Amino acid sequence: MALSNSEIADIFNQMADLLEIKGANPFKVRAYRNAARTVQNLGKSLEDLVAQGMDLTKLPGIGQDLSDAIREIIETGKFSKLEALKQEMPEGLDKLLAIEGLGPKRIQQLYDTFHIASLEELAKVAESGEIYQLKGFGPKLVEKILKGVQLAKKAGHRFRFDIAKPFAEGLRSYLSDFKGVINVEITGSYRRRKETVGDLDILVVAKNWEAVTDWFVKYEKVKEVVSKGPTRSTVILRNDLQVDLRSVAKESYGSALNYFTGSKAHNIKIRKMAVDRGWKINEYGVFEGDKRIGGETEEQIYKLLGLCYIEPELREDRGEVEACLAHALPKLIELSDIRGDLHMHSKETDGHATIEEMARTAMAKGYEYIAITDHSKHLTVAKGFDEKRLRAQMEEIDRLNDSLKGITILKGIECDILEDGSMDLPDSVLKELDIVLAAVHYKFNLSTKEQTQRVVKALQNPYVHVLAHPTGRIIGHRNAYELDMSEIFKVCKNEKVALEINAQPERLDINDVYAKTAKEEGIKISIATDAHDPMSLDFMEYGLNQARRGWLEKGDVLNAHSLSELKKMLKK
Known about the structure:
The protein is of the alpha/beta class. The chain folds into four domains: 5-155, Orthogonal Bundle (DNA polymerase, domain 1); 159-247, Beta Polymerase, domain 2, CATH 3.30.460.10; 252-325, Beta Polymerase, domain 3 (2-Layer Sandwich), CATH 3.30.210; 335-570, Alpha-Beta Barrel (TIM Barrel). 43% of the residues lie in helices and 14% in strands. Strand 16 (498-502), helix 21 (512-521) and strand 17 form a beta-alpha-beta unit. The radius of gyration is 25 Å and the shape is globular. 42% of the residues are buried.
């Protein structure tokens, strides 16, 4: 049974979670975490690499033991060490790690005192006040725990886009290969490239539906067949993702595609326009009375209504129809527009590759430039730079720029914003850098006023160019910290500081709504991977999804400009 990279990464993350709760050697825990990250970020299927006989120990962070573990997982579908560890520990404890503020020690406290092993039990003890018996559990932490439980419950019904993608694209390929299939398209929030996906709706036009649905339910990643009918079949995949396969007639394909892509608000707007013309639109077509007048393609539907084609990412009823009528719909940025990446880390701090390795991978992508932005000294867990180490790296970058042809490495830093809003490194070194990213990495629980004042002070530093992962949210795990974003937009505009769309799939920060607001305010955006290894440079795709949902065009994005243009823009 084939396993995707994300499934293998999940196994290693589960192993790390349980070991951490158990209080195992932190180096062992970190080894599994690093292995999970390496596996998740691979551009190729691990199963294919194993089949090709690749020496897996050449992958970052993969030693012989982990290489053997990967082979065992691929061959058997399970990891014997994880299964044994699960038998030793209460079921459900690992899920509590998703709650912000709960580390392994606190989870152990909760279990030892109250035998808590589920989100429901945790909420009950927190709401009753019994939790205050435990040392270190004060009102602020308890409030955070209760918010975290609600967040975790909501997140449990949706999957991050990057987690859903390999399953979605695997199914697309599997169905497309079946003889007699004419069209296959994945609709819904997946097609609109939302941050998270609830389930998958797949439309298929085929000569023989019965044969296709027989083929569909035999897909190797199917855990359960829920239903198998004359026009629709539903399965649950191994990762609990629900997939609905729908049979569509060729003449209705465009209408069905439009209807099931959504969003609901966009569809209502389109249907109202049709009603105003005396027509009816549904998943079967566009009708004038009983006569079908369109519906074979989406383009045909929009044209009948006097509209241009509206990209799926824009279909949220945020003014896209009005913009189309006014001939003001944006020409959305494409991956091919990206000229470089302005946020990444090297092994000098918490990355896993040398600067040269990162640069050569970027060159292979056709990039003109990259910025190396390792952490500053306050982030001790990441071995952050003091002034001396940063200057040494600057000299190394000068040497590499002399020897490498075809790419320019910019000198940068991801500099911590301290609690009082000052920068973690002195201006005397910041002013010598090509690009400075300012970022919040601690004290997430300040009041809105305090957090806003803190960030505003950093934005007013004359050497800050970009606010990195501006709201600090981690999808399904940590809410955005409290910020007055209207004030942040105002200051960014005045100080000519760009906002980042951090393309890490668990961040995607800022969100699409803020990206659109930034565009409207004339604030530039940097779409950056925050890569910690060469493979993570592929995360740019996810940042592009967010940018397109935020109506961004090439001109709105810092790293869609040439190096000479970028340098002019960085001179504040």
